[in-house]
Design goal:
Chain lengths: 253, 253
Amino acid sequence: MKEVVILGAGNVATHLFKAFQASAGAKVLQVYNRSEENLDFFRNQVAVTSNLKEIVAADFYILALSDDAIKEIVPLLPEQHGIVVHTSGAKGISTLSKFENYGVFYPLQSFSKSKEVDFHEIPICLEANSPTVLIRLKELASEISEKIYEVDSDQRKALHVAAVFANNFTNHMYSMAAEICARNGLQFEVLRPLIRETLAKAEVLPPPKAQTGPALRGDSETISAHLELLNKDEQEIYKLITSSIQKLHGKKL
Amino acid sequence: MKEVVILGAGNVATHLFKAFQASAGAKVLQVYNRSEENLDFFRNQVAVTSNLKEIVAADFYILALSDDAIKEIVPLLPEQHGIVVHTSGAKGISTLSKFENYGVFYPLQSFSKSKEVDFHEIPICLEANSPTVLIRLKELASEISEKIYEVDSDQRKALHVAAVFANNFTNHMYSMAAEICARNGLQFEVLRPLIRETLAKAEVLPPPKAQTGPALRGDSETISAHLELLNKDEQEIYKLITSSIQKLHGKKL
C-alpha cells in the first residue's frame, strides 16, 4: 500500500484525498494544514495535524498548496525519507531541491469545492529528480488516473499558460457573451447548444480547422455591424481577437 | 403536411433539408440553387432547380443563403403566396419586406458539412411580420426543434455577436493554447479534460461565477511569468483579456 501524507486542505488537496481513498493501492495517512479549522472536512476520516513536527512517516508527501504557501512551507518542513512533491503548474521542480527525493505531481484540472470530478480522466503531469523517483510517481499516479504524462518544468509552465487560454479566457468569452445577451433581453441559455458544438468540434478537429465566423471569412460588413453593438472595452477585445484569427489563418481584411 | 422550398445548397440548407425530411409534419418539395453543380446532394432525393421561375408553390420558402446571396436573390424572387423567411443572424427582417408574408427562421448553430447535428437541440429564433405568420413559423419550427425563441431583429443581431464570442473567439483561444503546446513539445490532448470541465461548469453556473485563474485571483507573479513565455501578439491578447476579467470582477492588480 502506497502511503501518502497530504499537506494542504484546499480544492486540490480535497479532491486528491478523495481519489486516493477510493483507490486500490494508495492510502492517505494524514492531512496537514497550517490552520486547524480548514481540517474539519478531513478530521473524521483520517489523522490530521497543524504541526509540521507531527508529520508521520510515509512514502509520499504531497504539497497541495498555493504557490506562496509552498514557498513558506519548504524551509520549515523537515527532511523526509519519502518523496516530496508539489502540485503546482507554475513552480519549478527545483523549489523542492532541499529534499533527497522530490518531484512534481501536477493534476491539470480546474477544481471547485462543490463539484465532484472523475480523477481517472484528469491528466497528471509528472516530473522527478531521478529515474527511480519518476517510476514511483508513475505508480502513485496510476492509482488514480489513466492519463499520465512526463512534463518537465519548462513544459509545465507553458502548459499552465495554455490552460489559461483554454480555460480562463474561454470562460471569460462566455461571460462576455452572457453580458451581451443580458443587456439585449436574451437568455444565455440560447447559446448553450452552440457552446456545446464548439467543444464537440474541438474534440475531433485541431482547433484551427474548427474555426468559423466573420473573422475567418474576412466578412468586414458583419464585423462592422458587430462592432456597432459593442461597448468600447468589448470592441477592443473583438478587434484584437479578430485580427489574431486573421493572422493565424493568413487572411487580411 | 407543411410544404417547404429551400433556396440554397450550403451547410444550413443541407442540415435543414435533412431535418425536415425526417420530420413528421413537414416536407421539402424542392431545392433551388443558382449553380446546378451544388445541387448534386439533393438531386436524387427531391426536385431541384437553378431557375427562379421554376420555383413551385409551397407554404414556406426558406432562403438558407449567405447574407450577400440574400441581397441578390430578393429582387429576383417573384412574390409568393407562402411565407418567405431567411436564416441569417445578421440580416434584419425588413430585407424581405417586398413579400406579403415574411419572417426570419434563424437556427443558432455552427454547421459543418461533415458533421451531423441533432436539430432537436438547436435553438430556432423566429421573427415574423404578423402574429399569424409567427404562429405558422412556430408550427414549422416545432417540426424539427424543441427550442423555439421569439427574437426580434435587434436582439438577433446582438445574439449573433454574442455567438461570435461564445463560439469563434472561444475556438481561437483553443487554437492559441494548441499553438503554445505545439511549440513546447506538448500534445493539445493534455488540455482536453480541462476544456471539457470548463464547459461542464458553464452548463451549471452563470459564466462569471465559473471564472478562475490568475487574473481573477489578482496573482501578478503568475501573470508576469506567463507573459514571459508568450510572443508579442499573444502577450497583447493575454493582457487585454486579463484586464477585462479584472474589470468585470472588480479586481485591480
